[in-house]
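Q: How do we represent a protein-ligand complex in a form that can be generated token by token?
A: Start from the inputs.
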Amino acid sequence: MTSFSNTRLLIKILASSTLLGCSDVGPNNRNEVEITQNTETSVLADENIQKIYDTALNGLHSYEITKSLTTEIGPRLAGSRNEARARKWATKKMNSLGFKKVRIDNFDIPGWERGVETASIMSPSRQQLFVTALGGSVATPAKGVRADVAYFENFDALTSSPESGLDGKIVYISGKMKKARDGAGYGPANQKRRSGATEAAKRGAAAVIIRSVGTDSHRFPHTGQMRYQDGVKKIPIGAISAPDADQLDRIFKDGKNVKLNLRLTPKSVGPKPSGNVIGEIVGSEKPDEIILIGAHLDSWDLGTGAIDDGAGVGIAMGAAQVLLESGLKPKRTIRVVLYGSEEVGLLGGKAYAEQHNDELANHIVATESDFGAGKIYGFQAGKTTGSKLFVSNYASMFKGLNIAAIEGESDGGPDIGPIAALGVPTVRLNQDGTDYFDLHHTPDDTFDKIDPDAMAQNVAAYATLIWLASETDIDLRGQ
Ligand SMILES: [Zn+2]
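Then emit the structure tokens for the protein with zinc ion bound:
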């Protein structure tokens, strides 16, 4: 496939990586760069891509934005005053970066607030456990629930047990989550968090504790949203830290009976305001055609929401900022959407799909950063044939960042799920999430965990992606 344009591209990207002097940035070999391209690719591959690389990799765009959000606002629970303050912060930041048409799309959500949370083993030997209520959980009685514990080694063991016999007990669901670069362990481990209370209540239980959905061995429990099923009694549910779960597992293995005292006092607080914050670089030739790049502004309340999803907020805003700083004028409109209330059920993503329904046909492609602050290793299509063509055609543009095309289809991401379901094509940049679930939804999700070099690589990749999407002639909607 060697041609004049390919050779030119190779030289450009090699020049760029030498110039930048980044030790782990640069194409591995010539053959990898020489993949299928059309002439359009080579036009796009010229100095514009190099400008993007230079600006992003030598800057602290996302790092500074994430620092500002997590330091000036801190935790941003959906529907809270801090989430509202974060919306104000975001509009101010977007305006200061030179984004246009900055506005907030408002919507209301059912509010929920954390209360007191304590748990102790009362027998066979008194000891404290570290516990946190899951989002949406009802409270225990004010003094707590004191009861015998029924042990289940994982969620399947509970669902395959008879639908009775746990009257008044505290159900404990164990089960470790597997560590994986792509976060594949999360879905299976998350079942007990989402549906544990319902399954235990069907069997008569008074309350539930689960082993935290996480991959660390620290003593912080991981929160996260749970769900009640209509027509099933609502019982309180909390997560205990991994070492505390190990401790309980050992006691049960010894064949001992366990009595526990659990006290959780969260409460529902009625409708609360939330919103999505939007800012744009208006397209120079096709302003009505939209390239959407998203992240979510809300976080859980325990940490400062740095990796989930302050990093994504920094990356999405930083990528657009890099295009502006590079002096590039995208043909299509780049729309940055910072979603509200993602953590409590993708409420911002659903609100966007409703409020922007009449212009979804003009959304060329959507992408999203919501998997922490690790480096990106993959570029992956969504469900349309057009998105697959886009990825195979432009994969070479990401080689200089050590990013390779990944086979198969991705679902894009959580917040763009509702618009993807309505036909908006998606593409994904896959981040290394090996350590993501060590911190996810814990008090340890704080800014010190963020590496500026990894953030810069993310910004370079997303800036390249939205630039290519704004200029391409490939029809991403093509089936
Ligand atoms: Zn998130």
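The mean pLDDT is 91. Residues 296, 308-309, 342, 370 surround zinc ion (CB under 6 Å).
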